[in-house]
Amino acid sequence: YNHKEQNFKGKGRFILTSKDSKIEGLDISYSHTLAVIEAQSIQAHLFLDEIKQSQKEKKKLPTFKGGF
């Protein structure tokens, strides 16, 4: 993690989990300031009931970008 630029880049396979999703992919890049997660490839399993609850609570989630 680069604290000065508030970003992170990693090579290889990754898994991100939260109460509303499980994200798997390859070669992650994350920008805290832009709230964007990018990856060479990405597959998301979204738990829609949890996402709807988060939206009701007005929680801000990062934007995901990936190659298809």
Concise overview:
The protein has one helix at 48-56, and strands spanning 7-9, 13-18, 21-31, 36-46, 63-66. With 68 residues, it is mostly beta strands. The protein has one domain.
Secondary-structure map with pairings?
Blueprint: E1 7-9, E2 13-18, E3 21-31, E4 36-46, H1 48-56, E5 63-66
From the N-terminal CA to the C-terminal CA, the straight-line distance is: 26 Å
The assigned structural class equals mainly beta
Q: Name the overall outline.
A: flat
Low-confidence sequence ranges: none
How many domains would you count in the coordinates? 1
- pLDDT averaged over residues: 85
| Proportion in helices | 10-25%
Number of strands: 5
| Beta-strand content bin | over 45%
Topology order in helix (H) and strand (E) letters: EEEEHE
Largest sheet: 5 strands, mixed
Evaluate the radius of gyration. Answer: 13 Å
